[in-house]
Design goal:
Elements lengths: L2 H17 L10 E3 L8 E4 L4 H4 L3 H15 L3 E7 L2 E6 L1 H13 L13 E5 L11 H19 L3 E8 L4 H13 L5 H4 L3 H25 L4 H7 L1 H14 L3 H25 L5 E4 H17 L4 E2 L5 E4 L7 E5 L7 H16 L3 E5 L5 H13 L8 E4 L21 H19 L7 H9 L1
Helix pairs in contact: 1-3, 6-8, 6-10, 8-9, 8-11, 12-13, 15-16
Length: 440
C-alpha cells in the first residue's frame, strides 16, 4: 500500500472514530511537508472544518494523536495552523523500497532518444588529499551518472585532474626543502596525504617569511610578493613550463604518489571513472584556441597585450582569457579541455558537477564556446550545488582546516563498528557490513 493511500485511509478512520462523521479517503488533501517544518507528509485540515465543526488546531491535534497511537508507520506530528505535519518511521521507507524492488516497480524506462553524455566530477588538485567537499561532489556525480545510464544514455564519467600551476609547485619546493628523501613508502604514509603535508609546510614557511619581511619594514603586499619560498616556487613553475627534465621528473613522481592515494579513496568510496583528463595536457590547447579567436576578431587585445572577450551584451562583463605575458587562466584551460573532450567522444551533452560558486565561470565558458561557434557549446550544462563549509568558515587545505575524506570515512566505519558491537554479540557481524553501514 502506498503512503498517500495509507494516510488517507487512516485519517478517514480517525475522523469517523473521533468526530462520528464520514469523510471519504479521497476527500483528504495531502501534500509534501514544507522544508521549514518537521515531517514528511501534511494533511490539509481547512477543507475538513465545515464537517468537523471545530477549530483547525483542535482537529489537527486530535487526528495527529490518533494516528500516532493507532498507526505504526506514524511516529510524530505537529500542527501549524491548519496543517497537520506527519513524520513517517524509517521502517516504512525501507519496506516501501523493498516492495518496489520485488514488484520491479523501480525499473526505469529507457529514454527513447538516448544521448552520449559526459559527466565531469571530482576534479581534485594533485597537491593534497580529497576532503569533505569532494565526498559530496563524488557521490553526486556518480549517482547522476548511474541514473542517466539506467535511462539508457551512453555516459562517460570523467575526472579532470588539476595537476599543474603554482599550487602544485608549492608542494614541490617544500618537498625539496624539507623532504629529506622521504617517500610514502619509507614513511608508511598514504601518497596524497604525504604530498598534502608538504603543501601545509609551504604555507607555514611562507607565513614566517612574510612576518620576517614585515618586521624589516616591507608592506603587507611587498611581503606577500617577495617571500623567498614563494619566489622559489615561481621559479620552479617557470622551469616546469620550460620543460626542465629534473623538475618534470619530480613533478611526475609526486603526482604519481597523489594519484595512488586518490585511487584508494575512490575505491573505498565506491566511485569510479571512465576517463581521466589532466590539465597539463590541455592548457596549451585552450591558449591556441583563444589566439585563433583573436585572429578571427572574436576576442580583442588590450594595450598591455592581454586578450579579453566582451560579454556585456550577454549581460555579463569583459573576461580575461590570456594574461599580458601570454599565459593562460582557468577559463582558457577549460576551453581547451572542452575541445579535447568533444574531439574524443562527440557527446551531445557535457555536464560539470561543480559547486554554485562557479556559476559565473560556467556561464562565461558556454558563452565563449558559442562565440567560437563550437557545435557542442549548447550541450554544456553546469549542475550546481551548495558548498560545504565548516562552522568556522570555508575549508582551506593550506591552513589544515579541512575535513579529510579518508579520516571521515574511517570515523564513520568505526562508529558503525562500535554501534554494531553494542547491539550484537562480538564477532557475529562481518566487518564489511560495518563498513557498508558506516559509509552508506
Amino acid at each position: 500500500m502506498y503512503l498517500h493511500e495509507l494516510l488517507r485511509n487512516h485519517a478517514s478512520e480517525a475522523i469517523k472514530n473521533l468526530f462520528e462523521v464520514i469523510i471519504e479517503p479521497s476527500e483528504i488533501q495531502l501534500q509534501e511537508t514544507k522544508k521549514a517544518f518537521e515531517g514528511d507528509k501534511t494533511i490539509v485540515i481547512f477543507p475538513l472544518l465545515k464537517t468537523l465543526k471545530t477549530k483547525p488546531e483542535e482537529a489537527g491535534n486530535s487526528i495527529g494523536q490518533y494516528l500516532v497511537d493507532q498507526v505504526n508507520e506514524i511516529t510524530g506530528f505537529s500542527v501549524v495552523k491548519g496543517f497537520l505535519n506527519l513524520t513517517v518511521n524509517d521502517k516504512f521507507w525501507v519496506d516501501f523500497v523493498r516492495e518496489m524492488c520485488q514488484n520491479n516497480d523501480l525499473i526505469i524506462e529507457a529514454n527513447p532518444n538516448p544521448q552520449k553524455i559526459m559527466i565531469e566530477y571530482s576534479s581534485p588538485n594533485s597537491n593534497k588529499p580529497l576532503h569533505l567537499g569532494h565526498i559530496r561532489n563524488n557521490l553526486l556525480g556518480h549517482s547522476i551518472s548511474e541514473i542517466l545510464k539506467a535511462r539508457g544514455h551512453d555516459v562517460i564519467k570523467a575526472n579532470l585532474i588539476n595537476d599543474r600551476g603554482i599550487n602544485v609547485c608549492k608542494s614541490m619546493i617544500a618537498y625539496l626543502k624539507y623532504g629529506n628523501n622521504e617517500t610514502p613508502e619509507n614513511t608508511g604514509e598514504k601518497g596524497d596525504h604525504f604530498v598534502g603535508r608538504f603543501y601545509t609546510f609551504f604555507d607555514e614557511a611562507y607565513s614566517k617569511e612574510m612576518e620576517t619581511l614585515a618586521h624589516q619594514g616591507a608592506t603587507v603586499e611587498e611581503a606577500k610578493q617577495n617571500a623567498p619560498i614563494l619566489l622559489e616556487a615561481q621559479q620552479l613553475l617557470q622551469r616546469w613550463e620550460n620543460g626542465d627534465p629534473e623538475v618534470i621528473k619530480l613533478w611526475h613522481t609526486m603526482n604519481q604518489w597523489v594519484y595512488k592515494g586518490f585511487d584508494q579513496t575512490y575505491e573505498h568510496m565506491g566511485v569510479d571513472f571512465d576517463r581521466y583528463y589532466y590539465e597539463s595536457n590541455t592548457y596549451l590547447k585552450g591558449r591556441d584556441i583563444v589566439i585563433k579567436g583573436l585572429e578571427d576578431g572574436i576576442f580583442y587585445k588590450k594595450e598591455d597585450g592581454s586578450v579579453w572577450v566582451d560579454l556585456v551584451d550577454e549581460g555579463l562583463d569583459e573576461k580575461l582569457l590570456l594574461r599580458s605575458d601570454g599565459t593562460s587562466v582557468y577559463m582558457t584551460q577549460d576551453i581547451g579541455t572542452a575541445e579535447k573532450k568533444f574531439e574524443d567522444y562527440q557527446m551531445e551533452q557535457s555536464m560539470y558537477i561543480v559547486g554554485n560558486e562557479q556559476d559565473y565561470h560556467f556561464n562565461v565558458l558556454k558563452l565563449v564556446l558559442q562565440k567560437l561557434n563550437k557545435t557542442y557549446a549548447n550541450g554544456v550544462v553546469h549542475l550546481a550545488y551548495g558548498m560545504v563549509d565548516l562552522p568556522t568558515g570555508k575549508m582551506k587545505s593550506r591552513e589544515g582546516t579541512v575535513v579529510d575524506a579518508d579520516d571521515l570515512m574511517e570515523q564513520m566505519v568505526a562508529t558503525a563498528q562500535e554501534q554494531t558491537e553494542r547491539a550484537t554479540p562480538r564477532g557475529s557481524e562481518p566487518s564489511n557490513v560495518c563498513c557498508d553501514r558506516g559509509l552508506y
